[in-house]
């Protein structure tokens, strides 16, 4: 069944793509096998990360970017990461609703994903979902993060280019000066630039960029003013992304290696913990270690060393 599903993904079948992402999102037992079957067909799509604080108009911007890329005849997959419903565990906002004009376009696929408590602006399975869209043949994959603020930096480990969206009048002129969000941006977008304070926000970002001495061949993030609701400035965002892509081939290779390392470490950690709890420790024993740490009977480092020694000693 998984092999058939992989074939459907590689053929670009929308229902197969949707089902594959659902398997991955639900941590289905066959999800790993699915990724293994499609992985050699990935690496062709260009991944664009769109991040920024809540209310910055990220979804509207992504919708406009979709329109621009489709005008260039590029096929586009979108993963919109939303907050998690406390009742269903699903995505709360459902950003697909903002992109209904593309619903009948076979060269567009939009999927909302819930964070399910994962921090950093992405769902835990976002990277594998992007692999599915890549394998399905989409030229561009856009990942829109949940919008949790300045610590939303996981996107830099996934995207080939990171677009940081800011908006005037909500304190972003202060947020823009904070290291986390400044360091991940390849392109800054000041959205809702028809509002008062847009020029001040641009100046704040420019001032921060001026603190860094850029080499002649080093990319300096441009600042693009947009009004996404009308499409104003959006072609300039697409042009900035194209310029970054053309100049940053070496950086793209480096980022994809970083992405591979991060994912490998994440999977090894998950599997080690599963092995520890399922194969090494008695039922409830891990929880008892946690209780002892909470009661200050043992420190976390000693507990971790003890668990590691237990795991190593049980292996042949």
Which class of secondary structure composition applies to the elements?
A: alpha/beta
Please mark out the parts with pLDDT under 50 across 5 or more consecutive residues, or reply none.
84-92, 116-121
Helix content: 40-55%
Element-by-element helix/strand order? HHHEHEEHEEHHEHEHHHH
- CATH C-level category of the largest domain: Alpha Beta
* β-strand amount: 5-15%
> In angstroms, what is the radius of gyration?
21 Å
CATH architectural grouping of the largest domain: 3-Layer(aba) Sandwich
Based on Cα principal axes, name the global outline.
Answer: globular
- Give the number of helices: 12
Give the averaged pLDDT, no decimals. 85
| C-alpha end-to-end distance | 34 Å
Tag the structure with descriptive keywords.
about 325 residues; seven-stranded parallel sheet; Rossmann fold; alpha/beta; 2 domains
């Amino acid at each position: 069944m998984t092999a058939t599903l992989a074939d459907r993904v590689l053929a670009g079948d929308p229902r197969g793509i949707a089902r594959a992402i659902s398997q991955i999102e639900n941590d289905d037992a066959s999800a790993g096998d699915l990724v293994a079957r499609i992985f050699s067909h990935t690496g062709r799509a260009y991944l664009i990360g769109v991040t920024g604080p809540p209310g910055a108009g990220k979804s509207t911007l992504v919708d406009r970017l979709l329109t621009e890329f489709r005008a260039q005849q590029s096929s586009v997959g979108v993963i919109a990461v939303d907050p998690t419903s406390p009742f269903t565990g699903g995505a709360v906002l459902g950003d697909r609703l903002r992109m209904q004009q593309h619903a009948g376009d076979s060269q567009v696929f939009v999927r909302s994903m819930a964070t399910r408590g994962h921090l950093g602006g992405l769902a835990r399975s976002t990277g594998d979902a992007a692999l599915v869209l890549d394998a399905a043949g989409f030229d561009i994959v856009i990942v829109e993060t949940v919008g949790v603020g300045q610590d939303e930096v996981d996107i830099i480990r996934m995207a080939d280019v990171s677009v940081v969206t800011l908006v005037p009048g909500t304190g972003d002129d202060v947020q823009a000066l904070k290291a986390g969000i400044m360091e991940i941006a390849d392109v800054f977008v000041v959205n809702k630039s028809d509002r008062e304070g847009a020029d001040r926000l641009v100046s704040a970002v420019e001032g921060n960029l001026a603190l860094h001495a850029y080499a002649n061949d080093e990319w300096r993030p441009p600042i693009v003013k947009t009004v996404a609701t009308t499409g104003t400035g959006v072609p300039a965002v697409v042009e900035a992304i194209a310029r970054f892509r053309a100049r940053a081939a070496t950086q793209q290779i480096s980022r994809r290696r970083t992405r591979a390392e991060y994912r490998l470490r994440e999977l090894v950690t998950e599997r080690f913990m599963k092995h520890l709890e399922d194969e090494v420790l008695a039922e409830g024993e891990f929880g008892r270690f946690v209780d002892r740490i909470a009661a200050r009977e043992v420190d976390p480092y000693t507990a971790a060393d003890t668990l590691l020694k237990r795991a190593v000693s049980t292996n042949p």
